Amino acid sequence: MCRHVACLGPVVALGELLIEPAHSLVRQSWEPRRQVSGTVNADGFGIGWYAEGDPVPARYRRSGPIWGDLTFADLARVVRSGAVLAAVRDATDPGADGEAAAAPFADGPWLFSHNGSVRNWPDSAAPLAAGLPPAELLRLAARTDSALVWALVLHRLRAGDDLGTALAEPVRELASAAPGSRLNLLLTDGVTIAATAWGDSLWYLADAERRRTVVASEPYDDDTRWREVPDRTLLTATRTRVELTPLKENSL
């Protein structure tokens, strides 16, 4: 359920990353090759990107399928960025939250996406939700598991955690509270990418020559440099560096 991709590198048109590759995110919305759960990602989509000199990203989100949005195709042709996070959504449960439930979620310099689901939602996550300040719960963007996961991550970011810790700790807590959850998370501030592989596919492409790193649910082309991230792993990356750290339920 859901596919997502983040890229740091030279400035390119969004379409070069999201539309033009043979197995692009757009194609993955109806024909994913490595998706563990679900077959069609038509319940919304979103793109977040950073403009040069502005640390706060712009977003374009819609509640329908990405392949039917002609405005997105036009934007992707002309909008250019060196830091992008985008996602297509397969909803865990039917709901009326519309584009508010579509990743990327955003706050300040951060963009976030969740590929997966929290098992036995919402009861399993109630103890973790109870640990958040009431004001943060009231500000949830949508009534979905992904929105709560984002709130848990954001709480840690605001407390000063680095991107990797802000993902790893909520994943560990959620995996303990709701065993069997799929918790592939993707986070960027336009300079660094952090991601977790937990229950679904995750890949990365490191292109040292172009100073570019791509992290994605699955490869968007047949470049032999794509590498699969082992399950239960935290990935952190910049344009020139990728680090993999094993994740365990009781310790990082």
From TrEMBL:
Q: Name one GO molecular function term.
A: hydrolase activity
Sorted UniProt keywords: Glutamine amidotransferase, Hydrolase
**Every Glutamine amidotransferase type-2 domain range:** 2-252
Q: Please name the InterPro entries in this protein's record.
A: EgtC (IPR017808), EgtC-like (IPR026869), EgtC_Actinobacteria (IPR032889), Gamma-glu_amide_hydrolase (IPR052373), GATase_2_dom (IPR017932), Ntn_hydrolases_N (IPR029055)
SUPFAM superfamilies from the xrefs? N-terminal nucleophile aminohydrolases (Ntn hydrolases) (SSF56235)
The catalysed reaction is: gamma-L-glutamyl-hercynylcysteine S-oxide + H2O = S-(hercyn-2-yl)-L-cysteine S-oxide + L-glutamate
Kindly indicate whether the keyword Hydrolase belongs to this entry: yes
Q: Does the keyword Protein biosynthesis apply?
A: no
**EC number(s) from the headed UniProt entry:** 3.5.1.118
Q: In which pathway does it act?
A: Amino-acid biosynthesis; ergothioneine biosynthesis
Q: Pfam family example for this protein?
A: GATase_4
NCBIfam families, sorted: ergothioneine biosynthesis protein EgtC
Q: Which HAMAP family match?
A: EgtC (MF_02036)
As for what it does, the entry says: Catalyzes the hydrolysis of the gamma-glutamyl amide bond of hercynyl-gamma-L-glutamyl-L-cysteine sulfoxide to produce hercynylcysteine sulfoxide, a step in the biosynthesis pathway of ergothioneine.
Q: Per its record, how is this protein called by name?
A: Gamma-glutamyl-hercynylcysteine sulfoxide hydrolase
